[in-house]
Amino acid sequence: MTYDIAIVGGGIVGLATGRELLLRHPHLKLVVLEKEEILAKHQTGHNSGVIHSGIYYKPGSLKAKLCVEGRRSLWEYCDAKSIPWKGVGKLIVATEERELPLLDDLYQRGIQNGIENLEMVDAKGISEREPHCRGIKAIFSPVTGIVDYGVVARSYGEDIKAAGGEIYTGCEVKGISRKGGVAVLDTNQGDYQAKYVITCGGLQSDRLARMTGGGSDPKIVPFRGDYLILKPDKRDLVRGNIYPVPDPSFPFLGVHFTPRMNGDIWLGPNAVLAFAREGYTFTTINPGDLLETLTYPGFIKLASKYFSTGMGEMYRDLLRSAYVKALQRYIPDLKVEDTLPGPSGVRAQAMMADGTQVDDFVFEGDEGVVHVRNAPSPAATSSLAIGRFISDDADKRFGLGTIPASV
How far is the C-alpha of 135 from the C-alpha of 172, rounded, in Å? Predict the structure, then answer.
């Protein structure tokens, strides 16, 4: 059988895209191929579950546009599907005077991005919302929420199947070639043929792009983030999301406090190099993945620039008291004994050979194919909007409106 479209990757972006395409074109013969035995196993299944407002992203960027649009769509989708979510809000807290200009800039960015009902609050306003949090000034975003993105992604998958699409798990794509106007996807379950291909491979996105002649950059470098969890009897220390002011000298956001739908409170994450693309523990090592990272010029330049910062992150990863000290900047009452080891996630950080990190979503195409080259946070929040964006591109690139119904 030859499908009209094959989507490689069963994370939240791939599933949202498949769902959108079938909503637009119910006649399409569409298949989703996922290498794991379950959907949404990696970035989707390991993220913090925050429904982001869109405040952090550069005005005019795809992240800013698609996050705001996607957040509103996600609220509507969850309500329509009776998927639980909570609008717990977020405080972005400045604890030092030097952070105040950055906080003001962030507030203006949020206004430009169209974030609803943002407030700038003083120390009293912080303690009114988070009695155990200490800071001198903060932005309060009431439209930030939480949800279980694994539940959302699996619901997208059910939508695909209900619309006649097919999903195959345990199906790893090892190669993509094009013959006679049809793509042949070589998998561990045999060959699949499709007129067009969309790859949404997350941690494997650069490798999938290279299968069709895509460039080596942006390249994925994996960074592991380890969380701590508050003990159940200490959950009253945190009510909603508490986030830092982004530090321009640090390439990642920094530790924060995140309530979960099951009542847990996650603390973190840190950011350390993962020794495997899917390395969720310190001891998980894939020699090929690690060698590829360590010899990549972009990583060498990044590591050189942020060497001391990176060593600090590694130190906190190995010593919990140091990790908790970073968290005490916001919640002084927090103690080491209040915490438990938590889960980990791996971020697919897209980088260029000159050492710069790719800041925005990246989508690129070639004959018969669209690749999602970079879709980190807030991709889960933005998933429905990203699905529409990719479908718009596919409509133009592939001429989907002219494809006759499959037999």
Answer: 48
238 and 283: one domain?
yes
Token digits of residue 204: 């494997």
Q: Is residue 97 part of a domain?
A: yes
Write down the H helix ranges in 227-377.
287-294, 297-305, 307-318, 320-328
Question: Could you give the CA distance from residue 180 to residue 2 in angstroms, rounded to a whole number?
Answer: 12
164, two tokens = 């006649």
Per-residue pLDDT tens over the stretch 257-273: 999 999 999 999 988 99
| DSSP 8-state symbol, 339 | E
Question: Is position 64 within any domain?
Answer: no
What DSSP element (H or E) covers 190?
strand 190-199
Domain, as residue range, for 116: 90-142
pLDDT per residue as tens digits for the range 64-80: 999 999 999 999 999 99
Confidence band for 228, pLDDT divided at 50, 70 and 90: very high
Q: CA 401, CA 75: separation in Å to the nearest integer?
A: 29
> Within this chain, do residues 365 and 316 fall inside the same structural domain, yes or no?
no
| H or E stretch covering 296 | none
236 shares its domain with 352: yes
